[in-house]
Amino acid sequence: MRRKVALWSLVLGAMAALGAAAGARTHILKMSGRKDLSGVKGCSNCHFVSTSRLAWSKKRPHHAAPAGLVLSPDGARLYVALDDTDEVAVADVAARRVTAKARVAGAPTGIAVDPTGERLFVTCRGGDRLAVLEARTLAETGSVPVGVGPIGVAHVATPAGGRLVVANAVSDDLSVISVSPLAEVARLSAGREPYAVAAAPGSRALVVSRMANITRGDEVPASEVTVVDAASARVTLRARLDSAHLSEGIELVPRRPWALASIVRVRNLVPITQVAQGWVMSSGLALCDPVSGKSVEIPLDEANAYFADPSGVAVDADGRRAYVASGGGDVVTVVDLDRLGRWLEGADETTRRDAIDDLQLSPEYVLARVPTGRNPRQVVLSPDGKTLFVAERLDDSILLVDTESLRPVGRIALGDGGEKDPIRRGERVFARARTTFQAQFSCRSCHPDAHVDGLAYDFDIDGVGRDIVENRSLQGLDGTAPFKWNGKNPSLKVQCGPRFAKVLTRAAPFSGPDLDDLDAFLTSLPPTRTGHETHGRLTEAQERGRRIFFAIQMTDGRPIPYSSRCSTCHRPPLYTDRLPADVATKGPFDSTGKFDVPHLLGVAASAPYLHDGRAATLEEIWTIYNPKDTHGITNYMTKHQLNDLIEFLKTL
Amino acid sequence: MSGARSATGALAVLLAVTAACGVKSVSAPDPSRTVLADGSRVYVSPEQNETDGLYPARPSQLWAKPQGDAPARQLTFGSASVADPVVLDDGRVLFVSAMPPSLSTPGTHLALFVVNSDGTGVLPYACEHDGAPYVRGPRELPGGIVAFRASDSPGGKERWESVLSARPFRSRGPLPAALVKEAENPGPRARMPMGRLSTVDPSKKTGILLCLDARRNSESESPLPVTRVRILAGGAGSARALGEVPLAADGSFLAEVPADVPLGIEALDEQGRVVRALAPWIWVRPGENRACIGCHEPHGFAPRNRRPLAVKEPPARLTLPATIAETRSRGGM
After folding, report:
1. Crossing angle for the helix pair A512-523 and A422-431, nearest 10 degrees?
2. Which end of chain A, N or C, is less packed with Cβ atoms under 10 Å?
3. pLDDT in tens, A534-558
4. Selected residues 113-172 of chain B with any CB under 8 Å from a CB in chain A
5. pTM reported for the whole predicted model
6. Residues in Cβ contact with A591 at an 8 Å cutoff, skipping those fewer than 6 apart
7. Residue among A399, A444, A396, A452 at smallest CA distance from A424
8. How far does B237 lie from chain A, in Å, by closest CA?
9. Which residues sit opposite A469 in a β-bridge?
10. CA nearest B198 in A: which residue?
């Protein structure tokens, strides 16, 4: 009898489960208005999603990671901006230890000192401000709002007094600030993600933009060096750096007409048939003449060894040596500028043009590679040029290198390195290049700050010339599975697993523990900042846009079918239903028209748009690429209504 | 597959083709230097007779034998015999073979090549157009140095030479005396070579050849007057044309070609004259997408960043002539 009951329970249970699955499927098809969905979809595609349960909304450990460095004019004290702990630290160089720390709110990142050494100027990229500190006490004495996401800052002496030029990476502009009185004098346009700033003679500042500009189709991308006359607060030159990307450092070279900018030379237009011989990217320096705007790009890599993610640059006072931190390669490359100058003098126009692609060239001018700790990003030289200070970002330390012997002579500890924190360990995996064939690039090379590089790539696994896809942000990923534009990867561990090694790194896959740590790091990342945060209140335009986003009828009262409403596929709170959708954007080289619905958190800072990056702006998604209302019914909107919709999207 | 033979012995046979005496033996590198990251040991097979020449009907090839009972896998598929494999720290296999014959070089010059551990991505490594034409016994030394023995004539007096891995095509010279002892006996390797997941797709029988600009060449800035290319397949002396592929306006071409057979390329001008020729030597593995910059491309260069027009069209499909397919199925290629 008991056996019969058990059997019937089993049968009834199975029938109930099948019925529930069929009911759920009918519900999903009805509510999504779709008839093309296959496979089992879960309730969690649309329901039970709460951002408070996601990894990125949880508290995480913070680390004393050095973001910016500057020495006092006498070289006795080293000031370090610690963005992750909201602090500025000062270290006694002779004693090689931190002597004081002060709290500076808003993720202090870039740091500069005035010529007297009395004041520090600190950019706070999370607070969109520039803080002024008294150098002796580290007390904050002033603050001024700047653009969104300020990173680099330089002090420029002008006849009108001291000026500060600040690179606002998120708002793509520059703030020119008078030191006394402390006030923003001008906001100037720059390239995409202006990042590092260097002072130059003649009241000028040189700014390099980290990202290449947004391009269309087969256009060659380019980064930019922007020359600013700080006295008149005007841009005097915008120089193009062809195929340059991830430019995070710039420094002027005394005695020579060059500014040196670190670059990654991307080859995103070339199908990724191989990684060998720099077919995906390689590292280099752009030698940019800040007067003419002409530039020569030279490699830092070698034919069979690469030094990925060049970042901070330092040049000695007599212009004879440059030091370039390789964040992915864990080395500092030492460049002999005299030898480089001689090579340049002997090179004809064609040789100069092709120099960056010549992977056997760097021994002409590279003097040494100095090993460092993890993820060296910033470098500064002591005033006498005898000591190089290297910020080992993911070790929470500063390495001191003797520039004569080129050997380490000490280290200043800022924190414990975070070895016990899986998120920190995952960031190390993310930033290191040695998991790629010949250490050619790291995850960060294409995803700086785990965000986007704005480029589209041709992965040959889908066929050469086929399925070219735009890079997607890794910020705000938790809860948005599946991954890839085709939605084929159900988890980050699959996305970053063996297939990734086959497709891209062409090396052994990440180990299990590394993959766990990488997952912890990526899921810990909140959506990117856009500078359009509402702090709970929408403007009138944003509110109008919100109503359009959730509209169920057009302006004239005609209903918008459920399947054509913005909020159906881009369902809050993540603004995705995590299903594939066909919005008629299949191109002639795409093997499918169904693409994973991307989440919209931080969408304003994730250009370009659509799976292959064909839309340079949010507006173009609808004004150019939605002529038949296949990507939501939008053609009824007036220009003003579309503007309102975009204003709302920017707040997400 | 016949029995494995010593790599050094294979090269001795190569050299003995033109000189039957006077070849000094080179002490084999430590066995650990022929082991891949997955534990497979790389070796040369089949054995050659002294009269086989550089391009025998059945050239010696590189193989990788996994640990245990798993069968060996073939790594090279060229028309010239190979010898002296060593596994580099970056996981690739460095070996000696004859340079592919072309219009300008008769094909008796030995050089160093590399291939991935799955047989994909074969590339020249060093010694192609510089110095003494006979090289053997390469080995990787610390400090980014690759040492090898070189002689001016088959069986002639040998000396240690080296290249820097940083610029292998521009740094050939005598091996510093202080390093000769280490070159003669490099000892066990200090660290495991880099691993790699195979990109070979056993379900396929073809691969893709992409050339970014067949008019670009290393000898001149002026583009070659090439309008199409002829792809050849087959062993030495038995190569057959698979077909011709027109160049796109930017000089690029894309072709789907049979895998695991020696492939050659003839660059043709408008009148069909051969402007440049590469005898069958390279190969693609099943599912491999193989690309080059140009026709006799400059070595050690990365490509310019531009999208080749050829990828906007499906690849030209070239199939193996029945005679070659038959020879191949009998293991003669």
Report:
1. 100
2. N
3. 888 999 999 999 999 999 999 999 9
4. 116, 121, 123, 144, 164-171
5. 0.92
6. A462, A463, A466, A467
7. A396
8. 31
9. A457
10. A502
